[in-house]
Amino acid sequence: MQAAVYHPGSPTLWVVDNYDIPIPTSNQVLLKVKACGVCHSDVFFLSQFASDTRSYIMGHEICGVIAGYGVKVDKRKFQEGKLYNVLSFGSCASALPKPSSNINITNFDFIGLGLNGGYAQYVAVDQHLLVPVPDNIPPEHAAVMADAGVTAFRAVHRTAQVKKGEKVLVIGIGGLGLLAVQIAKHFGAEVYALDIRPSSRALAVDFGATEAFDLEELSARTAKGFTVDAVVDFVSTSVTFAAGVSAIQNKIITTDLASGGRIVLVGVSDENLIVNAVQFISSNIAVLTSLYGSREDLTELLELVSKGAIKPVVEGVPLVKVNEVLNELRANLVLSRKVVVPPDSA
Fold this sequence. Notes:
This protein is α/β, with parallel strands linked by helices.
């Protein structure tokens, strides 16, 4: 089968046509991959952790149909020809490595990172990782929901707990940020966006943001008293963190102290973020982090997509071009989200 394989020390993936089709173990199913999203985290790991000594197929935003079963899988629980998403982290975060200032990628053991993933025509996954996709969602859209979508959904709905009537600032209008704008809007928030790219700011407004700023524009507005109730940061650099703080510190604290602002960090960066204790305590600012999402989050999100409440912006390209897409992500040229589509292997 065709597959895009990570080899130790290589910043690009090796696309091969003779990789063995996996044989599912007793509790696994074999998926024929219909689409797999290309994620910024892949770029991050290829750039930061080139010392991984293992070799494996990357790709974790997977959508496919069942092509085979392990001997202990109850086939009656699944439907042939139906699309399924794959939960990247499973049903819990128990597989995450212990917190450390020196992250060792060899401690990671996820689909597409340590385990063979979805940049291939087939992938074998544990049966409990499958989430059914509503029939009216195309595989390219469903694939993006498996990571970008569910991560944005959890950050906005569960972690930030965005409520009707609140003002929310979404920082970084890429694949996740654009979905977050729509999710926050769906739950009744007044949404604002921050991005350095004019095209991304325009896209945010097209998909429901009241207004979109660059850094200078936001600074000018906050100097005049502009404030929000929550910030969801999909970049998480020192610059964007400071911008988020400036947008939330003007929030008026009520006598019951229940109205403090929330900053939710979702983006992965290796920068240290500066917190001034007096500023954060006196402004009652809560700093939270949000990682991935649950089966329930993904199921609820897929229903919103099925009903047209959330509209993914996705472009599909052949799997053989996966390195081109990774380079576009490195250069910040992908407006929303791209997925790779393997050649048909009927």
